[in-house]
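Supplementary Data S3. Sequence and structure tokens for construct A.
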Amino acid sequence: MCVRQSARFKTVSYNWLGASLRAVTLTGKIGGTNVVEASPVVTEAELHQRLARLPRVALGTLPTPLEPLPRLSELLGVRMFIKRDDLTGLALGGNKVRHLEFTLAMAMEEGCDVIINGAAVQSNYCRQTAAACAKLGLKCALVLRRDRRIDQFKTTEPQGNLLLDYLFGADVRFVDADADMDTEKERLAEEYRAKGHKPFVIKHPDLGGGFGYLICLLELVEQCRQLGIEPTHLIHSSSTPTQVGFVVGAKALGLNWRILGISPHHRPDAPDRIAELSNLVAERLGLPVRVTPDEIGYSLAYVGEGYGIPTDEGMEALVLMARTEGILLDPVYTAKAFAAIVDMARKGKLTKEHTVIFVHTGGVPALFAYQPTVLKALGWSV
């Protein structure tokens, strides 16, 4: 049966500046927190070889560029680079393309012909799932959650990602904000089974993101080598799977990079989930790596009122990136993650001594759905 089972997790608190991945001994400080001297357990070539043994289907335009941000670096007083995973190619790009290369390969290997996914109405994951299914000749069915609290910040639907879901031919179903997503996806799967289909339900634990972002980390290592830079921080928007690949890769390769995920929602159990998935990914690849929740750098400080609800700081950061570097962010994920970098720079937690990579995980179509919020950030009366 093509279903991924969910799990339960406890709630704990974490150092929001991020902990480096422990391996040997404490050796110094970066940004006021301990740095750990990690010992590699695998070479880059060996990690590539292990990943190459996994089922994978080509969906993205990879590797994505690693670019300097010269004007922002000067403005914020921090040496900054951006990993352009908004340019992964498929359906206006985004991080989930890397996830889907492994997840959909597994679904096809199992003989599934319908892919079921679900999230918020303006889900980037669902938009990229619908596009990937269209590319691969698979049926896509989506369960999308409506939330009236979020709708007040958006224009009339369908717009943004939802418009593209329809364009890619997805079977779209809507549920209320308090609906249990796993239950609703399984209900839709049963509907398709009754019609003679073999559905694949994307749900936790899904290891595709971990594998995909191990590939991304290997790209970064090579790109940093070519540019002659040694990052101190890797900062990105994190709702779990993307950070898994960075965590496992950094620990396996012995990188002293501070991996910091900025949460787009109030989910204090996320470090537990990241650690659990990290260990599953390491086990699947035969890596002698073990990750604990206290090793996960994760911040809830920039969520604001909740998922999908823009913050003033995030919208300020979005406009700053657009007008300083000509790069588009989105109000839900990347704007809040970049707002964290701006805030840390202004508070002196990031300085000219640091080299920061901001991983742009995509989400640009949501800009159009959040048109009233964007206009307000630009000073328009709406």
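Construct B, processed identically:
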Amino acid sequence: MAVVIPRLGIGGTEHHLLDILPRIDRHWFDITVVTTRGAGPLDEELRQQGISVVYATTARKRLLSLVGSFFGTMKYLRRERPDIVHFFLPEAYFIGGLCSVLLGQGNRVMSRRSLNLYHRRRRFSATIERWLHRRMDVVIANSNAVAKELADEGVARDQLRTVYSGISADIDAAMTPSIARQQLALDDNMMVFVGVANLIPYKGHRDLLEAFAIAAPRFPDNWQFLAVGRDDGIGAQLRDHAETLGLTDNIRWVGERRDVPIFLKASDVAVLTSHEEGLPKSIIEAMAAGLPCVVTGVGGTPEAVIDGVTGKVVAVHDTAALAEALVELANDPELRAQFGRAAKARVDQLFRVETCVAEYERIYETLIERSGEASRASMPMR
């Protein structure tokens, strides 16, 4: 089986694969990850867990990379002829999907993990995706919101599946809040917010800064926001805006980190103010850590965070409502604890990694059985 993705960088989809692929039954599924953009920081971690990672191209220039990706992916699929090809993220779907269709290979699966707002910017890609949809055997959405959009794009009901992302029951049981705060040089009595999101415009950091400026006079005196995520080009603008709003001392720009659990354990409230999402893994991880969450009601996020039960859900760009939600939780430790317990229980109910793995295996097995190429009772799949 081949899993095609642009690159194993630091992101929600990539960490999803890092969680899921090593847990899939290797006795029946021989998995290779094919990256269309070459090496990434998670390659070795997957290899250490027995997952092969190969590169369709190592070219760095964009045009050469696209051409190399297409022919490299085509070469791999023609040579290996995997029983199943599973595409993650739009670029891999575009390149790998076209290659697999041109080669006439069956058992094609596409996973979409975001809303389709990118179609507005990439009309040609949107047209190709709709053409590819009809040639997929299964299309997987990671939330009901994403599934609805896929149905609107023409994906047939019998093709479509919704599989929630899964994480381990406790991402770091040994780390206590007190130890985490000591390691991060945070006072025990400090009110700490955390946001795990790369610095990209649609993640809504600017809205959040403006909400913090509105809310700050009603916060406890000692508070801080930990902004965990890679700077994708707007970091300097956000720092300038924070300074303009008088928030410089309250915002810690942490950058890209692999040790996200320590930041969750050190925090009181998780925040995500995205303008678009499929189903944010960072929020599910925060819920698993027992954190109440303040989020914008976009995509599948309200399928995870239930307003008034596991956190607060506000409208996109409504900085006044966002500020009110932040103030309410900052000043009510009992409500934070209540929401946090409910959040952890909801993860255990809906977002277990074991459930996600079982759903993937069921989809793969059904495809193989339908094609008649192999079965669990005969021989391992390629």
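The CA atoms of residues 199 and 231 lie 5 Å apart. Residues 62-80 form the longest helix (19 residues).
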